[in-house]
Design goal:
This protein has 692 residues and is mostly helical. Helices cover 66% and strands 1% of the residues. The chain has helices at residues 25-49, 61-81, 89-103, 113-127, 129-134, 152-161, 177-212, 218-226, 241-262, 284-288, 301-307, 312-334, 349-368, 370-380, 391-414, 418-441, 453-461, 463-466, 468-481, 489-502, 507-536, 544-549, 552-567, 570-575, 589-611, 621-624, 628-688, and strands spanning 16-17, 20-21. It has a two-stranded antiparallel ribbon with strand order 1-2.
């Protein structure tokens, strides 16, 4: 399945044609090899080498740190050895684009959460009397869970505790593949269908976002600024003194702080945070709204650099948004209205605020590009449309529609009513679109979410209307598909497409290769994850967040069953189906109210941006509100906004442009400073056998 015209868009040719460079075979092979390495090594790095997260966020050091190192050292060396060995900007653009797609696969975006979410519940059921009494794992459709009957010692206990002994690793044949085959044949087509659909949607959005709206894509802009010109080994930005000043200072700070871990008595760390927490007693409302971390701001140099390239309202909103939210939350808490309660898949007001904000952002995005999207849709259906619609966009829309339909059909087959399957799919796509729009517009690479479709539908309809079995299906899909949308393929895809476009490589060809990369990475990453979890044990070789998230669906089942039994509506809830469910809707009032409040505010702020030239706010604040990521990023966006404002005010456009190399150097220095520990830790592990 691809996005180009059959027989033409998927081909690879050589040389240059018109204004678009075609891909060299070298670039494609290196891109696929890089993707294969990322897919195979990521889990080893995270849970065996213990070297920090290999794919930390939407601006992975594994990609951008490597790029900085390559352009500083390797490419100039290749030029000295033989000029034809030098990788061009077009080749590097293709390699980075495919590497970014691969980054989503071994992380939360595609496969990492599959094993823990469907196997660990059997282990937890043995340890939790409430689960065992209700036999909650038996409530899930058979195809959604692995088969552990027969050799439970190897299938379940081997997964939890590990089959390896000391330094003796297991072989791939010791993994009980038969226990996993049936459930993986369900999960992989389900996940790949919605993933490829979302990637197709990214291609549809590309022209509108990059050309018509001219979104900044700050991360892609940084990467493109480093790429070499024709006949060069690296960009001319490396010749700027300001670049080297920014690079040198930030790299020195990062390297010094890393070496302090090894030589704590010889070196003094440079603090990258400020501590105003003693002032907390002066801001009790902010603290009551969970804003204490705002008084201990951390400076993220990469975020400061990226913020310099953004519109002022974006950076300002990212800086002050958490203060506004936490203050409002603190005031409401005085009146008994608590926004943050329960776990992530429970019905809580905060989650509905996020959902309303996400929905508003997506609706305004669709409204802004309505003419173009409508023409793409008509063209994809074979109807006459505007000439501005390229063939690749029409094919991408067909891929999106086909993948979305396949996802809905699979949800229906496994047990959801088609109405609920459509609602669930719409919410999932809203999440992907909002996160992708955020990375294109802000470069805020650290994105979490409180939007879990199963819980949102629960809040709108009530437990009686849905029933435990239906809700369990939605909860299970959520903890695998949407537990970390900040690592989803779609936001990586929008960056890949923009970079390809910037280096004059055809978007359709990169899109086709992206699908191949996704399939290749999935085929490598999932077996490697299962291997290391059966070798070391899933309690050691898996992340705390996926293990915790694996409890959500079944904790909810115990709670919902008890509640419906007490209300005498359990049998009724299981007998409802189709449109009859909507006759028994019982919305959670405060949560639904919160949704519409956030939706209204989000759309209102977006309209204000369109109507008023000096409007200070941007709806992107609703992607973060007062969550952990917002508290982490706030100060750095604020510092970037202050620097840009001062330079623009007192130096004008000329000074603003002159300072750009400094900011690029700051980002590059930070990336390389994080890349060095990654390489050093890996070398240390393979030399000594011990984690760094």
């Amino acid at each position: 399945m691809g996005f180009g015209i059959p027989g033409r868009g998927a081909s690879i040719s050589f040389g240059r044609k018109g204004l678009c460079y075609t891909m060299t075979l070298r670039a494609v092979l290196l891109g696929l090899l890089t993707a294969a390495f990322i897919s195979g090594y990521a889990h080893l790095n995270d849970f065996v080498v213990h070297n920090g997260r290999f794919i930390s966020d939407l601006m992975p050091v594994a990609v951008f740190g490597t790029l900085v190192f390559f352009l500083l050292i390797i490419n100039p060396l290749l030029k000295k050895l033989k000029e034809s060995w030098v990788l061009t900007a077009q080749e590097l653009g293709v390699i980075i684009a495919l590497a970014l797609i691969a980054c989503s696969v071994p992380s939360y975006g595609v496969v990492q959460c599959i094993p823990t979410s469907i196997m660990l519940p059997f282990h937890f059921q043995r340890m939790r009397p409430g689960w065992a009494q209700a036999d909650v794992t038996s409530m899930a459709p058979k195809r959604m869970m692995p088969t552990i009957t027969g050799d439970e010692e190897q299938v379940l206990n081997g997964y939890v505790m590990g089959l390896g002994e000391a330094d003796q690793h297991i072989s791939f044949t010791q993994i009980p593949w038969s226990a996993w085959s049936e459930t993986l044949w369900f999960w992989l087509p389900l996940l790949l269908s919605i993933t490829i659909a979302a990637m197709g949607l990214a291609v549809v959005f590309h022209k509108q976002w990059s050309k018509h709206e001219q979104l900044p894509y700050p991360i892609t802009r940084f990467a493109h600024a480093l790429l070499p010109g024709k006949g060069e080994a690296r960009s001319r930005v490396f010749q700027s003194k300001l670049f080297w000043i920014g690079f040198g200072v930030i790299f020195a700070i990062g390297l010094n702080n890393y070496l302090c871990r090894w030589f704590p008595r010889a070196l003094i760390p440079v603090r990258t945070y400020l501590d105003f927490s003693p002032l907390a007693r002066l801001f009790p409302i902010l603290v009551d709204g969970h804003g204490l971390r705002l008084l201990r701001p951390r400076i993220l140099f990469t975020v400061v650099g990226l913020a310099y390239f953004l519109a002022s309202d974006v950076s300002f909103s990212m800086a002050v948004g958490p203060f506004i939210f936490c203050t409002v939350a603190g005031i409401l808490s005085k009146y008994g209205v608590v926004l943050r309660t329960g776990h992530h898949q429970s019905v809580k007001i905060e989650a509905f605020l996020f959902t309303g904000g996400y929905t508003g952002i997506v609706l305004m995005s669709l409204y802004t590009g309505r003419h173009y999207y409508w023409n793409v849709l008509k063209r994809s259906l074979g109807l006459r449309a505007s000439d501005e619609v390229g063939d690749y966009a029409a094919w991408a829309m067909r891929v999106f529609l086909t993948g979305t339909l396949a996802f809905v059909v699979q949800l229906v087959v496994i047990g959801l009513d088609w109405q609920l399957a459509v609602l669930y799919t719409a919410l999932a796509l809203i999440i992907f679109c909002a996160v992708s729009r955020t990375i294109a517009e802000t470069g805020a690479f650290y994105i979490g979410t409180e939007v879990f479709p199963g819980a949102i539908i629960w809040g709108f309809m009530g437990a009686t209307a849905l029933g435990p079995s239906t809700m369990l299906i939605m909860f299970l899909v959520t903890v695998i598909l949407l537990v970390g949308p900040g690592w989803a393929p779609m936001p990586f895809m929008v960056q890949s497409l923009k970079l390809a476009d910037d280096v004059d490589v055809k978007v359709s060809r990169v899109a086709n290769l992206a699908v191949i990369t996704l399939l290749l990475s999935t085929a490598i990453a999932l077996p490697m994850i299962l291997y290391w979890q059966y070798d070391r044990g899933a309690l050691l070789a898996s992340g705390g967040w996926p293990r915790y998230a694996a409890t959500f669906p079944f904790e909810n089942m115990v709670e919902i069953q008890h509640r419906l039994t007490a209300q005498g509506t359990l049998e009724l809830s299981e007998s409802l189906s189709g449109w009859r469910r909507f006759l028994h809707i019982a919305p959670t009032g405060p949560a639904v109210t919160a949704f519409f409040v956030a939706l209204t505010l989000s759309i209102g702020i977006a309209v204000g941006r369109l109507r008023f030239a000096k409007w200070p706010f941007h709806p992107v604040m609703f992607v973060f509100l007062g969550g952990s990521q917002a508290l982490t990023l706030s100060a750095s966006f604020g510092l970037g906004w202050i620097i840009k404002s001062l330079v623009s005010k007192y130096g004008g456009e000329k000074s603003y442009a002159a300072v750009k190399p400094l900011m690029i150097g700051i980002i590059a220095g930070d990336m390389l400073a994080k890349f060095v520990p990654m390489v050093a830790g890996t070398v240390y592990y393979f030399v000594t056998g011990d984690p760094p």
